[in-house]
Write a structure and sequence with these properties.
- This protein starts with a helix and ends in a 7-residue tail after the last helix.
- The chain is mainly alpha-helical.
- The chain is elongated.
- It contains four helices and no strands.
- Helix 2 packs across helix 4 and helix 3 packs antiparallel against helix 4.
- Helices cover 82% and strands 0% of the residues.
Length: 100
Amino acid sequence: MANAYRRNKVAGGDTRRQSDEVKAARAETLLANPDFRAAFEGVRAQIVLDLEATSLDGSPEVERRVLEYVRQLQALLEVKAKLMEPLTAALLKAGRVRSE
């Protein structure tokens, strides 16, 4: 971190602004990466496939399994939202807008 500060300071620019620009550029790169999006979609697709393959017979075991799939889907959404927060914040702080 100290090296990045020195590097920016030597360049003569606003250290905080350059840091915001670097963070925004990294956020854009990650959000544009198809593997990043595919990772979430792959996990979600597998959970949905498992859910669809579950035979609903009304047994307590099946009910528990279905509830667990729903919890997995909800947790996946929460994880994705938590990962997106700093990326979106970096873009906003640098004044960049990203359309979905």
